[in-house]
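HOLO CASE FILE
Compound: 6-phosphogluconic acid
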Amino acid sequence: MKIQRYPDLETLSRAAADMFLQMAGKYIAAKGRFAVALSGGNTPRRLYELLGTEPYILSIDWNLIHFFWADERCVSHDHPDSNYRLAFDAFLSKSRVPAENIHRINGEEEPEKEAAEYERDIRRFFGEREFPVFDLIILGIGEDGHTASLFPKSKILYEENHLAGFVDEKGIKHPRITLTLPVLNRAENVLVLASGKSKASVVRKVIDEKDPALPASLLSHGEGTLVFLLDRDAAKLLS
Ligand code: 6PG
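Model generated. C-alpha cells follow.
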C-alpha cells in the first residue's frame, strides 16, 4: 500500500489526473484498451472536471477506454445524485468515448435485476472464463469507513461469488448497486481519494489501525497496487 500526500484537493486531483493519463497510455499500449471503474461522491469531482479539460481531454485516447462504475445510486441517469451523471457532465460528454464503451449501472429499474445485468456486462467484457481484472478502480472513503457502496456490517462484504450486488442499508439516501470486494481487490490499480478534515479520523483508522470493521480497511492488494491519495487535512491524524 502506498500513501501519497498533497497540500489540498486541487493538487491531489491534478496528481490523480496525471496518473490516469499515464496509466491509460500504458494499458492501451500493452493491451489495446484501458478498463476503469469510477466512483461518485464529492471528492473525485475535480479530478473528473480536469479530465474534461486540456491537456487531458486532447491527450487521452478515449476510443480505447471502457468506463464502468464501482457503485451507483438507484436513481435515474439524469438525477443530481447519479454517479454516471457526475462523470458524464464533467468529462465523458466532452470526450470521444464511444457510447458502447460506457458501461453504466442502470439504477432506474429493479435493482436486483440490474445488479445481475451489470455483472453480465462485466463478464461479457472481460470474458466469461476470466475473473475480471480492472486496470484501474477509483474509490473514495465515507466517514463511516465505507468504500464504493460497501458499508460497515453489510452482508455484501462477505460476497464471494457475485461481482456486483444490491445494497440497501439504514441511513443511506438511495439504495445502491456496488462492485463486491473480490473485484475491488483483484484490480491492477486502486486509487483511494480522501480530502478534508472530516476524513482524518477514518483515514487513521483505515491506514494506521487497519480496523477490520471498516470496509475500506478490507482493500488488500496482493498483486495490484493500492494507493491512498490524501490531502493534508485528511492525512493530519496519521502517524
Ligand atoms: C458514492 C461512492 C462512495 C464515496 C464515498 C466518499 O457514490 O458515494 O462511490 O463510496 O466514494 O462516500 O464520498 P465523498 O467523496 O463525497 O466524501
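CASE NOTES: The domain at 1-141+160-178 is CATH 3.40.50.1360 (Rossmann fold). The mean pLDDT is 96.
CLOSED: yes
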